[in-house]
Every structure is written in structure tokens, then in C-alpha cells.
Amino acid sequence: MTILAIDLGTTNSACAVWRDNDVVFIPNKLGEFLTPSVVGIDDKGEILVGQGAKERLITHPNMTVAVFKRLMGTSHKVAIHKTSFTAVELSSLVIKSLKEDAEAFLNSTIDEAVISVPAYFNDNQRYATKKAGELAGLRVGRLINEPTAAAMAYGLHEKKEGIFVIVDLGGGTLDVTVLEFFEGVMQVHASAGDNYLGGEDFVEAMVDAALKAHGLKRADMTPEETHQLSMKMETAKRRISGPEQLVSYTVAGTSYSSKIDTEWFNRTATPLLIRIQKPVESAVRDAGLSLTEIDEVVLVGGATRLSVVRSAVGRIFKKLPACTIDPDFAIVKGGAVQAGLVQKSAALDDLVLTDVCPFTLGVDAVDEVNGQFVEVFSPIIERNTTVPVSRVSRYYTVQDNQTEIVTRVFQGEHRKPSKNVYLGSLRSSVPRNKAHQEAIDVRFSYDMNGILDVDVTVVSTGRTYNKVIKNSPASLSDDEFNKSLERLQKLKFHPRESERNRALMARGERLFETALGEERSAIAALISGFEAVLNRQNAMEISKAQEEFEQALEQFDLEEWH
Ligand code: ADP
Ligand code: MG
Predict the structure, then answer these.
(1) Residue 191: pLDDT above 80?
(2) What is the pLDDT of residues 46-70, one digit of tens each?
(3) Ligand 2 centre and the CA of 163: distance in Å?
(4) Percent of the chain with pLDDT over 90
(5) Residue 156 sits in the same domain as residue 170
(6) Do 347 and 384 belong together in one domain?
(7) 53-62, 212-221, 237-246, 302-311: which range is least confident on average?
(8) Are residues 371 and 350 in the same domain?
(9) Which protein residue has the closest C-alpha to ligand 1 atom 18?
């Protein structure tokens, strides 16, 4: 039995397995270990996932979607051409693509997965992730918090003991986790985060700053122009510690350019860097620690490659952060270690993992204040309690002859139940009696997957009621699930073997659209030449042409930077 570990990222996804007592990373059909979390439909109506789809974000913005992880757990739909998809469906397409890569690479079928989720994901989002795996034909045995996974990769490798903070800055999310690794036991003490802070926000800030310097606004640009400028800023960001760069772009058809250097970038990034501090402080405070008690700070996520991010984190802790594991693969590596644990690999016998529940879970209760009833949120499991956990609280009737108590379950930190996330409800019958004479015991059991089991026992009758919360507003009913499955099964996928050609052609087309003059004709000639080779269908010739075409395109991608 092989379990696939999946890091389902906002920007990039990756997968790995545990084999022969070690982690094996899975390359995708392009031979790369990171697959962009982008889904599109090509001109033939076939589904494209990964780099091939990402290249088309500019050329075919209405046929391509990205960053849908942010919509997980909502019922929001995104249209690709004439079809609309939920975030669960789009995620399932990414997972399916990873699954196929793994099956091709390992030459065996895979039916189970461990998927990582941000620590800050609530129940709805966790359910959505499980469903996405199931839609892709995988049983999702475990969900693992991303920072926990990264910590596992780190801790196991270094065999270090102490208190760690994991700071994961990806494309769209920041996760901060405080955990302790001691005598082979990993204990997560607290986690906090910002669901709207990531590497993409640095690019957005760069775009805004460049436009502002010219007195321009985003509203002046066509969607294509905005996409093009963002992509150029993305490349510039990755080279920001190098020499000054000149970024040229068009706004409403007029050409502009901006000079960009490290100092300019640092200034532009400052408001974002400041936002790292709050979740860091709240995670450390929730863990009952102070910043000086942290033994090691570990950086994870592509955006932590930015030196301003490293120094900002360093300043907060007054300590140089560690980044000995490639920040792109720490999570999937830890996921594979987790998969190994599930596979009961002997090599991992002495590693035990504990995790925390990221939000407070409770019910709405009635409080009597000066003879008036007010609704309050009554916590049963406090946030950052170590899981698995089971807690019980007693609640009394508030009226004479009350025959029913409705337990409404919420997740969140607000005093008013209505300001928290509603997860579901459970009705129980109680015998007629005077107010405060009848009671129920409400037991919450929260497991390692972040799934909540609610048990209610009526104290006087002993009668019990149970509910695994499933009908939260955004989770799928069985019926909806089957409908999704049916729809997805009807989609045609792009044939695997031609995937690299598609990605190369899409890249050529993108370069063609952004280039001008001579450069443009040269790219056009390259595209036609490659197309001609493809039409001749000679495998040897195609493979050679792929190399040449790719190298030539590489030159054009670089030449934008004089
Ligand atoms: P996610 O977990 O959200 O999918 P990743 O951890 O893959 O995201 O990080 C993606 C982010 O990392 C992107 O915003 C990307 O711009 C950024 N990134 C990747 N490489 C670099 C680099 N060399 N320099 C700066 N940022 C980078
Ligand atoms: Mg990530």
C-alpha cells in the first residue's frame, strides 16, 4: 500500500511518497517537482492542469483559473469558458493530475492520500479538501497541518530537540506554528496565521507602486496588461537581490517602464512585512511562551526566499532563521513522513505526532443578565488545545416546561455566536420540568483530521444523540458530491504524452503576445517550426525539437531584462 502525500498549495502543489525508508519526490509530466495549482480548458475543450495552464493565464484569461484554494469551503463558483466549477472541483483536478503523475512514475495505482492544509483552515475548508481528494479517486486518510508537516520534515532530519516556530509564507497564505520536539514526540503548542498574506501580495504591491509612480491606476489597464505586468514583476521579484532591473509594460496601449532595485523593493514590501509580526506574536503568546524562549525559527514556503522576509522574521525573534530544507518541499516531505507513519513503517516507529485544534469550538447558550436573556458563545474546546481531544460541558433548560434543547455548534473566537462560523445543530428532547431542572451534557470530540463529533446526553433520561458535523453550509451533500463526480468524469483530459508540447506552445504564444517587432517575428518563426515538427509525428525528431524550442524560448524570457 502506497499513500500519496500531497501539498495542495495556493500557488504550487507537490507530491511525494514514503518508500524504502525515505521520501521520494514525484516529478510531473514535465519532469518538474512543483506543479502550479492552475486549471484551464484548451481550445479543444480538454482540461489542462499545471504549467501548461499557467502559461495560458495571460493569453486565455477566461479559460484559466488560479488561486482557487482561497475559495475552499465556500460555495462560490468560478467559470472557465462556459462551465462553472467550485473550488473543490478545481482542487480535485489538480489532485487528479498529481495522482496520475505518481501512478506513472511509480508504475502502480494509488488510492489513498495524506493532504496538507493551512493550520488556519476551519472545518468547512478541511471537509472541502477531503472531498477534493475523494473526487479525484483518493481516500483521504489524514489531513495534516502544513506547518506541522514542515516541522516533521525538519525535526526528523535534524534530530534536534527544543521549541520551534515554523513561519510559512507561500503564495497566498501565512502560517505560524509553535511546536516542541522532545524525546521523539512532536507537540504542536499553538498556531496562528493570515489567510490573505503571501508572495503574490508582494507582486501586487510592486505593480501598484510602479503604476503610482507614473500617476496611473489599475483601472486604466486591460486585464491582459495587468496580467503581463504582474508576470514581469513576479520575475523581477525573484531577481530582486541582483542588479537594478528595468521593467517595461503597457498601460492602455502606451509604453512605460520602471526601474526596480532592492531598495525600492524593500520600501514597497514594508507594509506587508509588518503584517508578519501579529500572527507570530499571537501564536507565541497562545503557546504561553515569550519570543526569547524559542530555540529555532524555521522558514517554509517560496516567499521566504526573499531576503527581506528572512530579515523581517529574524528581527522579530532577534535570531537568524533556519532554512536548511528547501522551502518549496518541506511540507510535502513532512507529508510523506506522515504517510510513512500511516504505512506503519518501522523506521518511524518512535515518532509520535500531536496537533492542535486551530479555532475554539463551542455552542450557543443563553445567559440571563438582569432578567433579560442574551445569547452567548460558550466554548467547549478552546483554540490551540492539543488534539485528539474530548471535552464535555453541561447546559440547563431556561424555561418551564421546555421539551427540547437545540444545540447549535459554532467555531470561532467571538463572544456572539452569530459572529462565528456556524457548523450545524442537534436537537434533543428533555422531559417537561421547571426551568434549570433538566440538563444535557454536550461532548465534543475533535480528531487529528479536524473533524468534530458531537454527543449529547440528556442527564435525567440518559438518552443520547450524536452528530458528526457534515451539513455545514458549504460542505457537499452526497447528492452534490455524486453530481460533481459525474460532471468531472465527463471532462476530457489532455493526453499525458503531449503535455510538454502543449506547455511549450503555450509559453511560445505568451511570449509572442508580449513581444514586439523583430522579437515577435522571431518567436513566430520558432512556433511555426515547432508546430511543423509536431505535425510530422516523429518521436525522435519531436524530442530533439523540444529541447531546441525550449532553449530558444528561454532566451526570449531572459531578454526582457536588459
Ligand atoms: P503555496 O504554498 O501558497 O502554493 P509556495 O510555497 O509554492 O506557495 O510559494 C509560492 C510563492 O513563492 C510565490 O508567490 C512565488 O512568487 C514565491 N517565490 C518562489 N520562488 C521565489 C524566489 N526565488 N524569490 C522570491 N519569491 C519566490
Ligand atoms: Mg504552501
Answers:
(1) yes
(2) 999 999 999 888 788 899 999 999 8
(3) 22
(4) 51
(5) yes
(6) no
(7) 53-62
(8) no
(9) 302
How far apart are alpha carbons 89 and 85 in whole angstroms?
6
Domain termination residue (choose one: 340, 356, 372): 356
Task: Output the nine-digit C-alpha cell for 84.
Answer: 462553472
Number of C-beta neighbours around residue 317 at 10 A: 17
C-alpha cell at 76: 462560490
Shortest CA distance to 186 belongs to which of 162, 215, 221?
A: 162
Which CATH number goes with the domain that contains 225?
Answer: 3.90.640.10
Whether 124 shows a pLDDT value over 50: the answer reads yes
**How many structural domains comprise the chain?**
4
- 305 and 400: one domain? no
Tell whether the model's pLDDT for residue 360 goes beyond 80.
Answer: yes
Same domain, 263 and 284: no
Centre of ligand 1 to C-alpha 380, Å, is 38
Domain containing 461 equals 357-488
Which of 6, 12, 54 maximizes ligand 1 atoms within 8 Å of its Cβ, making it the mutation to test the pocket? 12
Q: Which residue bears the cell 522558514?
A: 299
Rounded Cα distance, 342 and 337, in Å? 9
pLDDT at 457 over 70: yes
Cα–Cα distance for residue pair 284/277, rounded to 1 Å: 11
Q: For residue 36, what pLDDT band results from cuts at 50, 70 and 90?
A: very high
List all residues whose CB is within 6 A of at least one atom of ligand 1: 9-12, 170-173, 198-200, 234, 237-238, 301-303, 305-306, 328
Closest ligand to residue 305's CA: 1
Clarify whether residues 193 and 203 are in a common domain.
Answer: no
Spatial distance between the Cα atoms of 469 and 363, rounded to a whole number of angstroms: 13
> Alpha-carbon distance 394 to 405, whole Å?
12
In tens, the pLDDT along 515-531 reads: 777 888 888 888 888 88
* Domain end point (choices 302, 334, 356): 356
Active-site residue set:
7, 69, 146, 168
Nearest ligand, CA 170: 1
Residues 288 and 364 in one domain: no
Tell me, yes or no, whether 352 and 372 share the same domain: no
